[in-house]
Amino acid sequence: MKYSGMAFQLGITIAIGAFIGVKLDEWMGNEQQYMTIVFVLIFAFAGFYVTLKDLL
Fold it and tell me: Which of 5, 9, 14, 35 is the most exposed place for a label (fewest CB within 10 A)?
């Protein structure tokens, strides 16, 4: 049960990063989704870090 919770936590973390990135791109008026890419990568790294920290 603990490991399935980690999968949901990782997915939700990446989804939050994508949401923030999309909203920033809309607010800044970017044609390319630069902020979305940056925030997804940052939140994915943070999610993987927390997941690996919990596993080890």
Answer: 5
Burial annotation 18-49 (CB, 10 A radius, 16+ → b, else e): bebbeebbeeeeeeebebbeebbeebeeebee
The rounded distance, in Å, linking the Cα atoms of 10 and 47 is: 5
Question: Quick check: 25 and 14 in contact, CB under 8 A?
Answer: no
Give pLDDT tens digits for 1-53.
767 788 888 899 999 999 999 999 999 988 899 999 999 999 999 999 988 88
